[in-house]
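We both want to read discrete structure tokens more fluently, so let's practise on a single case. Would you supply a protein for us yourself, any chain you care to pick? Would you write everything just below, so we can both look at the same thing?
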Amino acid sequence: MAPRASSSRPSSSSFFPNSLLTLTFLGLFLLSSLPLQAQAIKFSLPASRYPASKCIWNSVHDNQLVIVTANVSPGPNQRVDIEIVDSSPAKNVYLNKKGIKGETRLAVTTHAEGEVGVCLKNTIEGTVSGTQSLARIVDLDVDIGADAVDYNAIANQESLSGLETEMRKIEGVIKELIDDMTYIKKRQERFTKTNISTSRRVHNFAWFTIFALTALGVWQVLHLRSYFKRKYLID
């Protein structure tokens, strides 16, 4: 009987690691090719003698870098002021700058979890006519976290290659995802504690209500019994 020829088919143990490695590199490539997301908005800012602030709010984490780029169009007899605040109980004011013109780039680091607001006001200065039509166009970009980091400057400073720079970007994005998940976990734990505390209070109030009604019923029975005895209605 002739011996059986050996099969040249690759084993599954050598196939799956290679496939896993290929998928990993493919996922990293797709992730690195995604554009960084930034909050950009363009709007008209009306002028007034006593203007109200127009605020643009974005969610942030504690100790997170925020870079605000405001490009203000020219406008006579108008002064645009910018203020960066947050929604925390402390009402932190990170920056307050008056009379911004052209392109202005501002950077702050947050002190609390919540939302950071970029507030702008357009104030009329001097004597002008037709004040209702005065306005300035504002092009506002808000970069937060990994989007605010200048990776090109880091690459030049640390002599990083293109692949190392992309890996640094991915590291920043992953760190933000971890921070988001940690924040969601903390909120869930706080909501769970609130639900447990509320349930315990409702439970205690229910028992208090039962005891109070029972005591009131016993008192009413004893009181009526004593009353009927005084009136000789019962023995």
